[in-house]
Every structure is written in C-alpha cells, then in structure tokens.
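Researcher: Let's do a round of design. I'm pasting the structure tokens now; please hold your answer until I've finished.
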C-alpha cells in the first residue's frame, strides 16, 4: 500500500478521501455548480488531471458548504 499524498508546501499528509466527491446526483441546470457534489463544471471536467493538493482545496470548500449531497 502506498503512502498518503503529502501537502507539498507544508509537508503534512493530506486526509484520505474517496477518489471523487461525485454522488451520482449530477445537475448543473441553473448554474455552474453541481447540485450533488458541489464542484464547478470546470472542477468536474479537470478532476482526473488535478493534483492531490488541488483536489484537497476543492474537498475543503465543498465540505464546508455542506456537500456532497445525496438527496437534494
């Protein structure tokens, strides 16, 4: 098993997170934010190429905003 990703600037381990915040409640009908996971359209599109640090920034924001949401 590999070691968890480390924050390049602080040298501390990043939290262990699921591969994606997606909860299969995908909708950006009224704005650019997914109603299920809270990511922007751009974040969803670029998720696979983002670094662990970039993903962690997104994770922190969406969790603070009450995402991911399964029943919205």
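Researcher: That's everything. Go ahead.
Model: Designed sequence:
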């Amino acid at each position: 098993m590999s070691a968890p990703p480390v924050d390049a600037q602080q040298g501390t381990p990043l939290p262990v997170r699921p591969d994606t915040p997606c909860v299969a409640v995908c909708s950006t009908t009224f704005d650019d934010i997914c109603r299920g996971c809270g990511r922007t359209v751009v974040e969803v599109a670029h998720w696979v190429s983002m670094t662990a640090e970039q993903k962690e920034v997104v994770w922190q924001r969406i969790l603070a905003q009450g995402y991911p949401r399964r029943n919205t």
